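Exercise 7.
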Amino acid sequence: MSASRIKQGERMILVTGATGTIGRHLVRALAETGAPFRALVRDAARGRELGCDFVVADLDEPASMAAALKGVDRLLLNSGGALPVAGQQPMVRQQTTAIDAARAAGVSQVVKVSAWRPRPDAKLSVRAHWQIEQLLKASSLQWAMLQPTGYMQNFFTGEGGFTHSGALAGPYGAGRVAYIDAYDVAACAVVLLTGSLGISKSYALTGPQALAHEEIAAKLGVPFRDLSPRKAAEKLRAQGLPGWFVGDLLWLYADMAADGMSQVTTTVRDLIGRAPRTFDEFLAANG
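Solution. The predicted structure, written as tokens, is:
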């Protein structure tokens, strides 16, 4: 880890999830601003790949989080979801650890990457994000919540519902989703981490257009197959997924099919002064 020299009055930022989809964009964008920051990584080798100041710590190890947060004024809180263990979502425990450590370290503000419309009756990590939001709001910390829709990157990372034949398949129906590029989520996080905005406010982040998955498949140049929920469940179970998890995934598909993620907001433009990337612009930037 390279040594950080913090001038008096400067705000040190700690970025969790630094090697992830949003984090890699974020560390590059923060570096361009000149703001003092460090990335939190679990593996020093991955930290060196980022090319920035970093600290090795683990959200599952409170002592390491306490050390990582020394001298930190603002925290970007972001960690990936995982399958629940004994009915508990690990992300809740991990981010609670980070919130407690941040409070003890004297951090002034936490910017949390959350999910679209987090609520107590949701499934998957959406409900976990709602639980964490409640904990953060109840803490003594100032906070800001970034609540993005699905990420455009999902169609490149294997989370977009592709079959072995390369078709985009799922019980999507005609529902539209205003997918967002993680690049734009990172840009919004930079504004909140380096400026004076964002106190006690949630930001609903979307792309500039809501697309049906048939339209997305055409842009990707692959076939589209709209499956019934029953057929989709059969395929998911055939992949070895547990029944309860298949049920939760069908809840997400049903929400998309019912246009639960179709709203387009102006929040990205309001925060960063430009429109978020369209799906075509995303593909051009990642081609």
